[in-house]
UniProtKB/TrEMBL annotation:
<dbReference type="Pfam" id="PF14688">
    <property type="entry name" value="DUF4461"/>
</dbReference>
<dbReference type="GO" id="GO:0005739">
    <property type="term" value="C:mitochondrion"/>
</dbReference>
<dbReference type="InterPro" id="IPR027986">
    <property type="entry name" value="TCAIM"/>
</dbReference>
<dbReference type="Pfam" id="PF14687">
    <property type="entry name" value="DUF4460"/>
</dbReference>
<feature type="domain" description="DUF4461">
    <location>
        <begin position="185"/>
        <end position="487"/>
    </location>
</feature>
<dbReference type="InterPro" id="IPR027989">
    <property type="entry name" value="DUF4461"/>
</dbReference>
<protein>
    <submittedName>
        <fullName>T cell activation inhibitor, mitochondrial</fullName>
    </submittedName>
</protein>
<dbReference type="InterPro" id="IPR028031">
    <property type="entry name" value="DUF4460"/>
</dbReference>
<feature type="domain" description="DUF4460">
    <location>
        <begin position="22"/>
        <end position="130"/>
    </location>
</feature>
Length: 493
């Protein structure tokens, strides 16, 4: 708490006097106040920088969970949440405090341990060196405007200043839309323009790729790991140096590292164990942190066993449904964060026990969500269940949707088979070295993409690494990223 106190003290020194007297901020006002921050970190503006884009994507998910929880009656105090953002350089925040990367954005790291929305908003803006002047006006307006005025919808579309478009990169609707659609990139024209540079980058990366495979196999054998993965698209050179670091650690003191036997190691933002039991090595952490983590693994395995037991207890209270954690669809949580969510949910169920017919939901799946208020059924067949959920309405929802859930799960399995067949067919047809997709791309989108690719003749793709994503880019090691819903030259008017 001293850390939190000091932090708030620094904040109070830098903030105007109205900070002390302000009333509580509503959720909508918080989002509004954070608008400059969202413009500076939104993943859509990082198309050419997949690594930074994914850091921001993960941090935004975790921030939204934090903000939601702050507004919930059931959560009295929140765990400190460490976030890393790449902030795009703008006139407003270029005071040069953090070192600027060559690509024009700064890496900003901060830990949230705030108690209310206003202090959270101010702390985030301050941490990113963004102005807080607009909050003062928001605060004073809130008192002076009658409620009727402030909730009235504007009677004309909002007209943004030109600087808004240059800053956010959004299209100005007043610009010639027809021209914009004519200019839309087609797959063949993009490959025409970028194929050569991709081939060069790929060829340059081949020796390093071999080295990466060698290091990965060596370390996996030495530590008896089930896999080594990276949470995002780091370059091959980066990955090699991370494996060299881990190799050096193993040479210095092998014994603690042997605790990871049978585990998957993931290089990511922060160190710890993930909700699914992967060993997370934070790439900005020093070796001392990594070593401590390996030493602590046995206690993490204990917590994992407790987690499994807790999931089984929840399952037996809810008609045999299986509690799962789906990495692609959920915020990246540590084992401790996830265990505490399960615990809150389990205690809710115990307190308001609602009888489920034993095994009536066997074979179905649910994921726990801390940022939702109502249960829902996902198209992939699993239930999305809020942690703070009324058990009686939960029972009614699950019973009425069980048949649909089984249908969706069946469809998901069928889609997976079709997807794998199409990936193989496309890899073969275009003689690709590799065809893969980003985690955020669904099987349905991948199937759609591959079906359309197979109708094309694309000689450029021979021997390439192709990634199906949401945007066009050539990665630093020559991987080609194309959007799943790419446009075809002929179809464009």
């Amino acid at each position: 708490h001293t850390c939190h106190g000091t932090c708030m003290f620094c904040l109070e020194k830098t903030l105007p006097h109205w900070f002390h007297y302000s009333r509580a901020l509503s959720g909508a006002e918080a989002v509004n106040a954070l608008r400059p921050f969202y413009f500076a970190v939104h993943p859509d503006f990082f198309g050419q920088h997949p690594r930074e884009r994914e850091v921001n994507e993960n941090s935004l998910k975790r921030l939204s969970v934090y903000l939601e929880n702050l507004q919930k009656p059931g959560f009295k105090s929140l765990k400190p949440t460490q976030l890393t953002f790449y902030v795009r350089e703008t006139d407003q925040n270029s005071d040069g405090q953090e070192p600027l990367t060559t690509s024009g954005f700064r890496a900003v790291k901060f830990t949230l341990h705030t108690r209310d929305l206003l202090s959270t908003v101010l702390y985030i803006l301050n941490s990113c060196s963004l102005s807080i002047d607009h909050i003062q006006s928001l605060n004073t307006n809130a008192h002076s405007q009658p409620l009727k005025e402030s909730t009235r919808m504007p009677d004309r579309p909002i007209k943004w200043d030109k600087s808004y478009y240059s800053f956010t990169g959004f299209k100005d609707p007043e610009e010639d839309l027809e021209q914009a659609s004519r200019m839309e990139t087609s797959l063949t024209s993009w490959l025409d323009n970028n194929g050569k540079s991709a081939v060069t980058k790929l060829n340059n990366s081949l020796p390093l790729r071999k080295e990466l495979d060698r290091l990965k196999d060596e370390l996996s054998d030495l530590l008896q790991l089930s896999d080594i993965r990276w949470q995002r698209g780091w370059g091959i050179a980066h990955r090699c140096s991370q494996l060299h670091s881990l190799g050096r650690l193993a040479q210095q003191n092998l014994e603690p590292l042997q605790n990871a036997k049978g585990c998957t190691i993931i290089f990511t933002d922060r160190s710890g164990m993930s909700a699914v039991g992967h060993v997370m090595l934070g790439t900005t952490d020093v070796h001392h942190h990594w070593m401590k983590l390996f030493e602590r693994l046995p206690s993490y395995f204990d917590l994992q066993r407790k987690q499994t037991a807790l999931e089984d207890q929840i399952s037996s209270l809810l008609g045999g449904i299986q509690v799962v954690y789906i990495e692609e669809l959920q915020p990246v949580l540590t084992l401790e964060e996830y265990y505490s969510l399960l615990n809150v949910f389990y205690n809710q169920l115990l307190k308001n026990r609602v009888p489920f017919h034993p095994q009536s939901l066997r074979g179905l799946q649910m994921i726990l969500n801390s940022d939702r208020y109502a249960p829902s059924l996902h198209e992939l067949g699993h239930f999305n269940i809020p942690v703070l959920c009324d058990p009686a309405s939960l029972r009614w929802f699950m019973r009425t949707k069980a048949h649909q859930a089984r249908e969706n799960l069946k469809r998901k399995e069928e889609l997976k088979v079709i997807e794998n067949e199409l990936i193989q067919a496309s890899t073969k047809k275009f003689s690709l070295a590799k065809l893969y997709k980003e985690p955020s791309i669904s099987s349905k989108q991948m199937v759609d993409c591959c079906k359309r690719l197979l109708e094309q003749s694309l000689p450029y793709l021979h021997g390439m690494h192709l990634c199906v994503s949401r945007f066009y880019s050539v990665m630093q090691d020559g991987d080609l990223c194309i959007p799943w819903n790419w446009k075809n030259g002929e179809a464009m008017k």
